[in-house]
Write a structure and sequence with these properties.
about 475 residues, alpha/beta, Metallo-beta-lactamase, Chain A, 2 domains
């Protein structure tokens, strides 16, 4: 069934470049996501081949449906427009507000600094955007064949959705579900995803298909312990974090720790109430402001904190750095002084952005600590630091070798992705189980482990690797 319906244009051999084409029949189709390849996946053949260009015909594509606005799901959208795509771009209401910020930054960093050109692309984007409320069916293609879709909260980042598709071909109705990236239960600020009643075919992410996360209480205790360990070393704690999603979750958790332990003393001689948190990312600051504006989409716990007078994304211990000159002065000052402070900066995989300057200046100093709280794709500097840092290795940053003497920590519990148990439960809580599940968006080991687990739990469902 799936071979006739779905073509995968990305996130098949790895975790980036998500792009899936649902064929409707009669020469028509829709795309689910159009993401950027990252890390080792930027080169399909290992020889540096460009993977930015759209290498499939866009004429049959009637619409683009976005699951969320992370760059590995939306980053090739400008190239899709340049290739001649003329259809609507469907996404959730929150994603419609955040998407222009993501693409403006992506264009500035990877394509051009020409303001007029960027505004032209963003204007075209806004004219095509169709914001869909969660839980409401929307007709995409009328007639026979026909298609209607419904977005449901995925709990991954603000505005994230899984996509339910109902395809009509004559008297046949086929229910296809694209998971996008599913969030873990108890993700800060976001309600947990709820499984649909039924699906015939599920295209399921498998990022953490081979492991389980620690629970929220344990991860918060570990975060607090890592901060206290870093301050005991007498230096800064550097946290590479994605500008959207992970940064806001970290701020939320740090505000919780400060609120609960405000008078607890740290090795640096200060209390938690006096801890300084530097948010050194203009894009992350913009997204954090966007999260605040979209508080109607927060979960009940976060809204109760607001009602109690707390501000989990804008509290007094935070300092936001906007301009580049202040950023460079801050890097120089912290490298020289080793002042105990928490720095959150993009990019989350250390493949660009302001975190790279901090790493160049501070990786070689054992007084500092690095904390990874998100997935590090193969071929990224983040993966190299995570893998070789604990053994005193080195990493290549912008063509130069840097020894790793800083302490390196990883907190998998802060992943915004569902783990193996959550992914199995997403399928298991459907009242009518799918006939087929296709695993995408995962490394081979994760997909194989999840395939085995799903086969064992659901023997009547065919599970294959995309």
């Amino acid at each position: 069934m799936s071979s006739d319906l779905i073509i995968h244009h990305g996130a098949v051999d790895g975790v980036t470049g998500s792009c899936h084409e649902l064929r409707l029949g009669d020469g028509q189709s829709v795309l689910i996501d159009c993401g950027l390849f990252q890390g080792a996946e930027t080169s399909a053949d290992g020889a540096g081949r460009d993977r930015l260009q759209i290498e499939f015909p866009v004429e049959p594509v009637r619409a683009l449906i976005l699951t969320h606005v992370h760059i590995d799901h939306v980053g090739r959208l400008p190239y899709l427009l340049a290739a001649g795509f003329r259809g609507p771009i469907l996404c959730s209401e929150a994603s419609a507000e955040l998407l222009p910020l993501v693409l403006e930054d992506a264009l500035k960093v990877g394509v051009t600094r020409d303001t007029k050109l960027i505004e032209g692309v963003l204007g075209l984007l806004r004219s095509r955007l169709v914001a869909l409320p969660y839980g409401r069916w929307h007709s995409v293609v009328e007639g026979d064949p026909g298609l209607r879709v419904r977005l449901q909260p995925a709990g991954h980042i603000l505005g994230s959705a899984y996509v339910q598709c109902e395809l009509r071909q004559g008297a046949t109705r086929t229910r296809v579900l694209f998971s996008g990236d599913l969030g873990a239960p108890y993700t800060p600020l976001l309600p947990a995803p709820k499984s649909p009643y039924a699906a015939d075919l599920v295209v399921l992410e498998s990022t953490y298909g081979d492991r389980e996360h620690e629970d929220r209480r344990d991860r918060r205790q570990r975060l607090r312990a890592i901060v206290e360990h870093a301050f005991g070393n007498g230096g800064a704690l550097l946290i590479p974090a994605f500008s959207i999603g992970r940064t806001q979750e970290l701020l939320y958790e740090l505000e919780t720790i400060i609120h609960q332990h405000r008078q607890r003393r740290l090795a640096a001689g200060r209390t938690w109430e006096e801890v300084e948190i530097i948010l050194d990312s203009p894009l992350a600051a913009d997204f954090t402001a966007g999260y605040a504006r979209l508080r109607a989409h927060w979960d009940g716990e976060a809204r109760r904190r607001l009602g109690a007078g707390r501000h989990p994304l804008d509290f007094e211990q935070m300092l936001t750095i906007d301009d580049h000159a202040t950023h460079l002065r801050t890097v120089d000052y912290l490298a020289r002084s080793a002042r105990p402070v928490i720095v959150i900066a993009a990019s989350g995989m250390c493949s660009g952005g302001r975190i790279v300057n901090y790493l160049k200046a501070m990786l070689g100093d054992p007084r500092h600590d690095i904390l990874f709280v998100g997935y590090q794709a193969a071929g990224t500097p983040g993966r190299a630091i995570q893998q070789y840092g604990p053994r005193g290795g080195y990493v290549d940053l912008d063509g130069q070798r840097y020894d790793i003497r800083a302490a390196v920590h990883s907190l998998g519990g802060y992943s915004a992705h569902a783990d193996q148990k959550d992914l199995i439960n997403f399928i298991g809580r459907m009242r009518v189980k799918p006939r087929e599940v296709i695993l995408v968006h995962g490394e081979t080991r994760a997909k194989l482990a999840l395939q085995r687990a799903l086969n064992e739990r659901f023997p009547l469902t065919s599970v294959r690797i995309g």
